[in-house]
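Figure 3 (text version): structure tokens given as input.
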């Protein structure tokens, strides 16, 4: 049995390290769900979302100019994922994703399907709907809208901070280059891919100053990862 804290404990699980305020992760998680449906693997493979908190790695808020500069470029790869520029006042822009990341971990007590549903809904709430997902009441509203999360139980977990340790442990597990970026996908056998199918570079300055250019985009990367995960699951059952 692997002791690598990045890997899923069972072959029916796919681990995804990511942040919620990351356009490449929003793209990746959308493609991950789409690939699972397309391959007929809903109910067979589960997603274990783990925190890759950019604000802790960078010692800084994930700056809005950088996020905004990515939307048209990354959003054009999968428009159906839902994207729009922030429309609210500047003071309503989320300065942190830690409470929302904690909520996704807390929802795991209700099962990975609940956690998956909340993770995806929080991404849509931020990227497509412009909601301030750093705020407790917004997180709970989004959870209620999923229809898959016990909101009272989630509120209790948020209020006593029981999932905060999980976020910090995942941050530690991802450190020292062990997780390359948001998103980074891991399978039970150690197969992994950072920002699957996408390579990008920044032009005229780094994040927040310049803009990204997509050099390669291969959406089928997620099909290959999930097909490999399904093969591992079948092998474990043989």
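Below: residues designed for each position.
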């Amino acid at each position: 049995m692997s002791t690598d804290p990045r890997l899923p404990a069972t072959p029916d699980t796919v681990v995804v390290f990511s942040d919620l305020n990351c356009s490449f992760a929003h793209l990746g998680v959308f493609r991950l769900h789409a690939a699972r449906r397309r391959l007929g693997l809903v109910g067979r493979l589960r997603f274990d979302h783990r925190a890759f908190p950019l604000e802790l790695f960078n010692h800084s808020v994930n700056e809005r100019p950088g996020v905004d500069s990515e939307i048209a470029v990354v959003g054009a790869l999968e428009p159906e994922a839902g994207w729009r520029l922030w429309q609210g006042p500047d003071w309503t822009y989320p300065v942190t994703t830690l409470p929302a990341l904690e909520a996704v971990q807390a929802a795991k007590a209700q099962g990975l399907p609940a956690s998956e549903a909340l993770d995806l809904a929080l991404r849509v709430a931020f990227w497509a709907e412009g909601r301030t997902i750093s705020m407790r009441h917004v997180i709970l509203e989004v959870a209620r809208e999923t229809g898959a999360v016990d909101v009272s139980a989630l509120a209790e977990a948020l209020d006593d901070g029981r999932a905060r340790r999980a976020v910090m442990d995942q941050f530690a597990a991802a450190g020292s280059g062990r997780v390359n970026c948001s998103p980074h996908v891991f399978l039970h056998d150690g197969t992994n891919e950072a920002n699957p199918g996408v390579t990008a570079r920044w032009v005229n300055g780094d994040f927040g100053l310049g803009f990204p250019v997509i050099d390669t985009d291969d959406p089928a990367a997620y099909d290959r990862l999930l097909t490999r995960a399904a093969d591992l699951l079948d092998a474990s059952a043989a």
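The chain has a mean pLDDT of 96.
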